[in-house]
Structure formats: C-alpha cells, structure tokens
C-alpha cells in the first residue's frame, strides 16, 4: 500500500520540481532584464553629466553584493527551524574558483565600464550582444557543448554585426570626444563581451566539478563570494587612484545635482547586482547558453530605452547590426529547439 502511494506521489513530485525550476528560470531572467536594461542607462547618465571614474563604474556592478546577506540569512533561519545545522556549504574548490571568477568578473566590469564611458548605450549594447557568440565558443571548449550549423550561423552573424558598427563608428562618436578614445572604448567593450562569454561556461564548469549537489543555498554563497572578490579587485585601484575621496567632489560638480548623483549610484549598484544574481542564477537553474540567449534578446529593449530616454540616434548601420543580432539569436534558439527533437528521433531508431 505504501509502495503504491509512493509511486503515485513520484509524478507529482517531479511535476512540482519542474515547476520550481521554471519559476527560478523566470525569476532570474527577470532580474537579468532589470539589471541589463536599467544599469547601462544609469551608468551612461553618470558619464554624460560629469562622472569620470571608470573604476567606480566597474565597482558598482558588484558593490551591491551585501544584498545577498538577506536571502542567505533567511535560508539559515529556515535551516535552524528544520533543526538542520546552518553551515558554510562552499568547499575549498568552490572558494578558490569563486576567487578567480570574482577577479575576472571585476576585470570584465572595468572593460564594460570603460566602453560605456565613451560609447552610446545603443552601440555598447549591440557590441555586448556578441557575448552569445563567445559563450557558444567557450561552452564548446570548457563544458563540451556541441556546435551545430545553427550556432555557427549565429556566431558569424553577430561577428558581422560588430564589424558593421566598427566600419561606421565615426557617425556615432559624441561631439568633442577624441576618436582614439572612442575606438579604444569600442574594442574594450568587445573584450568585455569575450571575457563575459568565458565567465558563464567557466561558472557552469565550476558547478560540474564541485563534487557535491548544487543547491540554491550553495549558489547564493558562491554568488556572494564571486561578487565580493570582484568588488575587492575593483576597490584596490580605486584606493590607489583616490577615487573614493573624489566622490564628494564629483557629486558637487555633477550636472544633475548632488542628490541625483548619489541616487543614480545607489540605484545602479542595486540593479547591477540584480544583473549579476540573475546571470549566475540562470546558469544554476539552466545553462550558460540560456544566459547568453537572454542577454542577446534584451538588446532591442536596451536600444529602445536608449533612444527614448537618452535621445540617441538609431541609424541604418545600427538597424542592420540589430537585425543580424536578432537573426543570429533566432538561429541559435531554433538550433537549441531542434536538439531535443533530434534526440527523440535517435532514441526511436
């Protein structure tokens, strides 16, 4: 009798597990959307109205990591309520890997921050979308994700989209900005996309080699460590350059006023942490490739917000690059959709 009840409960438990997984995927995708769309807009406003520190921009990407103490504390309290010992779940391997990934994330943050200081959001977002191509390449190398002609098509299309922007970069250069800095910002953003494309499969690889079950509580602790090490990495050059001391001076001279300066920095730190949490959470609840797909899908939204709120020009070259980005995204998504169908046919044969 008990065996029959157990067998009946198994499908229900499996269904509940799938629902929870879908909920986590949706929640993390929403956090990614909030961070990826709002964060760059706020940082571009910071640079347009007098902000000068690239390291401060990089620091803000992960400086909101203390927010994670709240869910970690809730998890600890729930464990105590269930009479389970609350403990540090991170192993030595995960701690070391988190430190390395955190340093790389800090460097990646600086590359993106530098690019945002000289490029319009509409350009930096399109260049950033090339991370899907880099994610596909590194996922193949690091976690042995197989290439298909759909993924190859996506890589080629997004590469050409970046080249189109590169050949017509003079038309987007803000007035008074040296061409050399604009070009440097262009390549720094490409470098940031490449490094971010590596970080996502690298985190997936870290989970695979953890040697223990990857639970939600463990992921929260790993996220905390990665963001903490990234923040520490960015804090060192800020201390050397005395950027922390210059914040009050920069606030006093900010074009929109001192109050709005601090408001922009505070909100940027929070929403950018949402981006980090969402990106790492998508990898936990799905794969690094889904994270790259969602990031590319958000590019048109970034474009629209940049045109509406920052009055950026949307010219033919950007339209062509965007079309290639969406085409590449659709190709990759269709290829991922076809994989389960192909696997079914193989198992049937």
From TrEMBL:
Subcellular location: Membrane
Keywords: Membrane, Transmembrane, Transmembrane helix, Transport
Matches recorded under InterPro entries: EmrE-like, PUP_plant
Protein origin, superkingdom: Eukaryota
GO cellular component: membrane
Any one Gene Ontology molecular-function term assigned to this protein's record: purine nucleobase transmembrane transporter activity
Pfam families: PUNUT
Name assigned to this protein: Probable purine permease
Species of the source: Salix purpurea (Purple osier willow)
């Amino acid at each position: 009798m008990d065996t029959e009840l157990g067998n009946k409960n198994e499908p229900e438990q499996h269904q509940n597990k799938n629902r929870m997984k879908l909920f986590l995927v949706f929640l993390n995708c929403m956090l990614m959307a909030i961070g990826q769309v709002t964060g760059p807009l706020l940082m571009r406003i910071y640079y347009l109205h007098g902000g000068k520190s690239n390291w401060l921009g990089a620091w803000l990407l992960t400086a909101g990591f203390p927010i994670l103490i709240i869910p970690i504390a809730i998890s600890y309290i729930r464990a105590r309520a269930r009479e389970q010992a609350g403990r540090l779940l991170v192993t030595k391997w995960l701690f070391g890997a988190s430190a390395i990934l955190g340093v790389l994330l800090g460097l990646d943050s600086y590359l993106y921050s530098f690019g945002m200081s000289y490029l319009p959001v509409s350009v930096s977002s399109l260049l950033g979308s090339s991370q899907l191509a880099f994610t596909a390449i590194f996922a193949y190398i690091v976690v042995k994700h197989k290439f298909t002609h759909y993924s190859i098509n996506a890589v080629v299309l997004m590469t050409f989209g970046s080249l189109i922007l590169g050949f017509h970069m003079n038309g987007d250069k803000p007035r008074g900005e040296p061409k050399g800095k604009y070009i440097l910002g262009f390549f720094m953003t490409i470098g940031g996309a490449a490094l971010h494309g590596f970080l996502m499969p690298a985190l997936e690889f870290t989970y695979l080699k953890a040697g223990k079950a990857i639970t939600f509580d463990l992921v929260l602790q790993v996220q905390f460590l990665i963001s903490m090490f990234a923040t520490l990495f960015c804090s060192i050059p800020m201390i050397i350059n005395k950027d922390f001391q210059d914040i009050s001076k920069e606030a006093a001279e900010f074009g929109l006023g001192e109050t709005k300066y601090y408001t922009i920095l505070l909100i940027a730190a929070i929403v950018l942490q949402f981006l980090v949490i969402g990106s790492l959470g998508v990898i936990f609840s799905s794969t690094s490739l889904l994270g790259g797909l969602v990031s590319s899908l958000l590019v048109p939204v970034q474009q629209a917000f940049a045109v509406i709120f920052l009055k950026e020009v949307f010219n033919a070259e950007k339209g062509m690059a965007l079309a290639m980005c969406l085409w590449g995204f659709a190709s990759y998504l269709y290829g991922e959709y076809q994989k389960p169908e192909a696997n079914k046919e193989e198992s049937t044969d």
